[in-house]
Design goal:
This protein is about 35% helix and about 20% strand.
Length: about 325
């Protein structure tokens, strides 16, 4: 079965599927632009470029995502978007969407979304993310992993050479024996050297503003992991955190991004991700029962080459980014 799955992974090459090209587009803007204006521009652009009538849309949480929700409501009011269904990722996004008259549903009604739009706290060169500064990381991930396209909207201050030092990594944990879980998390090899801090006060900010543990929309606590050095292997950290008993989920969003829309003082740029290997494998497993085994065997050599080439490209991108730093 393992060999069968490996052989199948070459099918996208044989069938003509290729990864989207990385591209950048630029639009000139005034030099003196406030951060809120930058957030508004990327939020509006994401909706204008990726949301069409009849779509099911994941609505993100946070100060940048709020502008995307605002734009959806505005275009619906103007009649330029119709038959939209929004899937909110937090209580506050749900409340904003309701005020704007956006019809809402949940994943219980729609497990497949056309697009999701959300902000991020950090974006690395491979378009992996740290999210959850606003405390909605679990619902955000549940919704956004179900979207055909996940569009990330940020200003240029969120770009980094490596995840970790620029923004604490949130980890959602159960309240039961939370101090025990905090210690387990802090001791994981993949996040060695981090300092785990229980979030206090409001769950929507990692700045302490109270004396009691912050409680998420799901009734859980959040531990913020503070790093002085970049996380060496974000995927390994994601797996190790997820496999820790007591951890509900974490703020590492790896291999999920379709495109990042970036606002800077000199313009707006768009960076597209290469097709994630995980998504390729998902599609292959889905159609595997339809493909004869003798056809699957033709792709073994292509599989080894494709996997190695993708790993080398990602390693080179990270090495170049660190060298430039």
């Amino acid at each position: 079965m393992i060999m069968r799955g490996l052989l199948l992974a070459s099918l996208p090459l044989a069938m003509g599927f290729t990864a989207p090209r990385t591209g950048r587009t630029a639009m000139r803007m005034s030099a003196a632009v406030s951060q809120d204006e930058l957030k508004k521009q990327v939020g509006y652009k994401a909706v204008d470029d990726y949301v069409k009538s009849g779509m099911i849309v994941g609505l993100g949480t946070g100060s940048t995502a709020a502008f995307a929700v605002e734009r959806v409501g505005q275009l619906m009011k103007e009649g330029k978007l119709t038959d939209i269904v929004g899937i909110p990722t937090s209580v506050r996004t749900k409340e904003q969407a309701e005020e704007l008259g956006i019809p809402l549903a949940t994943l219980n009604e729609h497990s497949k979304l056309d697009v999701a739009i959300d902000g991020a706290d950090e974006v690395d060169p491979a378009l992996n993310l740290v999210k959850g500064g606003g405390g909605a990381l679990l619902r955000e991930k549940m919704v956004e992993v179900c979207a055909d396209k996940f569009i990330v909207i940020v200003d240029e201050s969120k770009l980094c050479d490596g995840l970790g030092p620029g923004f604490p990594l949130p980890v959602e944990i159960t309240p039961f024996c939370h101090e025990h879980t905090l210690r387990l998390v802090e001791a994981l090899p993949s996040v060695a050297g981090c300092k785990a801090v229980l979030r206090l006060g409001s769950s929507s900010s990692n700045a302490p503003d109270g004396d009691e543990p912050a409680v998420t929309d799901n009734g859980n606590y959040i531990v913020d992991l503070h790093f002085t050095e970049p996380i060496k292997d974000a995927r390994a950290a994601a797996a190790e955190l997820k496999n820790t008993v007591g951890v509900v989920d974490h703020g590492l969003f790896c291999d999920m991004t379709t495109a990042v829309i970036i606002a800077g003082s000199d313009g707006i740029s768009v960076k597209e991700a290469k097709l994630a290997l995980g998504k390729i494998m998902f599609g292959i497993c889905f159609i595997s029962i339809l493909i004869p085994e003798h056809v699957q065997c033709l792709g073994l050599g292509c599989l080894a080459w494709a996997a190695e080439a993708q790993a080398q490209a990602q390693a080179q991108a990270q090495a170049q980014a660190q060298a430039q730093a």
